[in-house]
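User: Predict structure, ligand S-adenosylmethionine.
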Amino acid sequence: MNGGIGNLLTPQRLFEVTNTVALVAWIVLVVFPGRRFVSSVLCAIIVPGLLAACYAAIIGWKLASGGPPPEDLMTLAGLRAAFADDWVFAAAWTHYLVFDMVVGAWIARDAVRLGIPWPLRSVALVLTFLAGPVGFLIHLVTRAALRRAVAIDDAAASQRVSVFPDDPCRAVAADPVFRVMEAANEWPPCPSEDLLEPEVRHMITRIRGHTMVTFPRLVSLIDQVRQCEARGIPGAFVECGVWKGGCMGLMALANLRYGTARRDLHLFDAFTEICEPDEAIDGNRAVQEVRDWTHGVGGTAGRLKPLSGFYDAFGGPGTLEENRMLLERHIQYDASRIHYHKGWFQDTLPEDAAGVGAIAILRLDGDWYASTKTCLEHLYEQVVPSGFVIIDDYDTYDGCRKAVEEFLATRGLRVRLHRVDADCRYWVKG
Ligand SMILES: C[S@@+](CC[C@H](N)C(=O)[O-])C[C@H]1O[C@@H](n2cnc3c(N)ncnc32)[C@H](O)[C@@H]1O
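Assistant: Predicted complex:
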């Protein structure tokens, strides 16, 4: 590299440029690990890709112009000799920059997904930048500790399930899935993960990356499908608020396993970011989450407008294509029985509800007051006697609970609200 470019581009200059680019990208990654563009595009593809291109160009040029024979590189002395060339040394440094950044981007995505607190994830990221493997190791230890804590928490949540003498779930005590728990004289429906039958664990594992729903709720959902199949409760499985389709995938898997015939599956969702809550009715938690998760830019006026960034920390909004892939490609459920209703509930339900027909399980997971109320008003009539109505966020958001209470009160309905875990409730239609 002599002449014009050769004078401009020296190993020292290359080192400075690649280092500066990497440093800026790392700062952005440490400060905004939850931004999808940063952790999935900028620091996972664009910057490492550019640096990799520099590396490939230099190594290619060096090899083409008679670099050290490969066998030299198999000895420390040979390596030292190769790195004595400043171009090779600068390229080797770029090699580090590329791989450290790809690992850093993965750590950022993983840490945000698992909810690792920002000081811990920042330490892991900074150390990955400064001393690659140390930061990586710290992240692995943190995530292992956190997963253990979550498993313990799930098990504890299962102990909080309140049981009524005539709880329909009592029927499952004799079922093989819960045999172990019965023998241990502990109450189902949510044993800890290692006590579940392998087939139940397997079903949950298959959809877990597609749902934000807690473990007790998933176990309970399988049980509800089993009961529908075992007791011949007719009707479709309907979920309003499917996100990436995990719960619907689980109902499909349970139907394939325990049912003799396929059911219609109805998926209602905007398949974009969630709409705004109404701060006057949905409560502090909803408002706080909008503030935190949209970095202060999301509205809380109850408008039917996607809240950009709301699901960034969970891997983005659920798309119709992701749902289709899960249900039709991975689970291979009969596509002719799957019905996607794309749009705001307020727009799709008035048009589509009647076509849904009888409902065996109505699962409402739209979080806010208006979403929950709209779904109940349009679909509840179609839930068959002994069918299940599940309210995922009954105790999470004030508005969700209020929607249910108002709906029941207006219709003079008295139902027994069963707890699944701290937030989720369900009732069986009388
Ligand atoms: C909490 S997520 C659902 C989680 C999902 N059930 C799972 O298994 O992880 C809420 C979903 O409801 C959707 N949603 C909420 N309100 C809605 C509305 N009014 N119309 C359409 N979709 C809505 C959001 O877009 C989002 O996909």
